[in-house]
């Protein structure tokens, strides 16, 4: 009932405009872990004021983000009703709503302070967030009042430099991130255009894109306005079991804020078999047992000497138990290489 009375009242009584008083709105990124994107909705004034009942509308890129949810708010009861976040499906429009019960209202200074924290689910990390405030003179979209509930206040003229479409101030401008096979290693390389107040890169790896394991850190340049190229090797990574490995960079600023790079993958060449050989050292017959998911598939076994020269090659219709005669070979250290389709495993045998 209160809202209906207020609406009728405004038809007959002109609201006042606070001459010279304006406000600014801002999005501040809190975190981005690749699956959730969290931002703060911020406000500042040309001079301090008390905020009253208001609706702050914004849009987002629903090709990359979904399910906006109000996590917390700095605008509290009993001065206000519980703030709400209204969505307008199937559009990408959202409204953060505050309703004043009695003065004083929410204190707004001339530097940005957070009104609320909002979380999105990420459905495509390659997309931009596309956050933008909706404002067209304070009439039908974003509407703000002082805590007298009569005086309208407006954003800086023409939105210029005030209502910020996307306030993700990235510490790093990433030009390229690649992962390639290099023998049995995974070679990571990336290139940046600029770095600002930047600390380091944390290399993370996953077998399922859900659980990520930190592997190491690479220091950044701190502040750089030139192209910088980085390389990092994950030694022996491709010998693991599975189909693919996934990599990403956690890019960390000096104040510990961070964001993630796009995810890159590399195909595993490791043999998906459990391999046992005996005896080792061997004199006459080398016994090999291959068990696992692909144990019934054809297998190729190579034996190489210490110079890498192929001295024996055998094809078998399936894995399992295999015996290889090696009595005719000179004493020394040999490498055994087992191939199965595109998978391989290499071990040393004496």
Describe what you observe in this structure.
The chain is mainly β and 350 residues long. It has one helix at 2-12; strands spanning 16-32, 36-45, 49-51, 54-59, 65-73, 84-87, 93-98, 106-108, 113-122, 132-133, 144-145, 151-155, 172-182, 185-195, 198-206, 213-219, 228-234, 244-253, 258-260, 264-267, 274-278, 285-291, 299-304, 310-316, 320-325, 334-340, 343-349. Mean pLDDT is 76; it is low at 1-19, 157-168 and 344-350. The strands form seven sheets. Strands 5-9-2-1-12-11 form a six-stranded mixed sheet, with no helix packed on it. Helices cover 3% and strands 53% of the residues. The chain has one helix and 27 strands. It folds into three domains: 2-159, Immunoglobulin-like, CATH 2.60.40.680; 172-267, Immunoglobulin-like (Sandwich), CATH 2.60.40; 274-349, Immunoglobulin-like.
Range of helix content = under 10%
Strand order of the largest sheet: 5-9-2-1-12-11
Quote the distance from N terminus to C terminus. Answer: 89 Å
Number of strands: 27
Mean pLDDT: 76
| CATH architecture name of the largest domain | Sandwich
Largest sheet, in brief, is: 6 strands, mixed
Number of helices: 1
Low-pLDDT residue intervals, each spanning 5 or more residues: 1-19, 157-168, 344-350
Rg estimate, integer Å: 31 Å
Strand content: over 45%
Our count of domains comes out at 3
For this structure, the CATH topology of the largest domain is Immunoglobulin-like
Series of secondary-structure elements, N-terminal to C-terminal: HEEEEEEEEEEEEEEEEEEEEEEEEEEE
| Broad shape | elongated
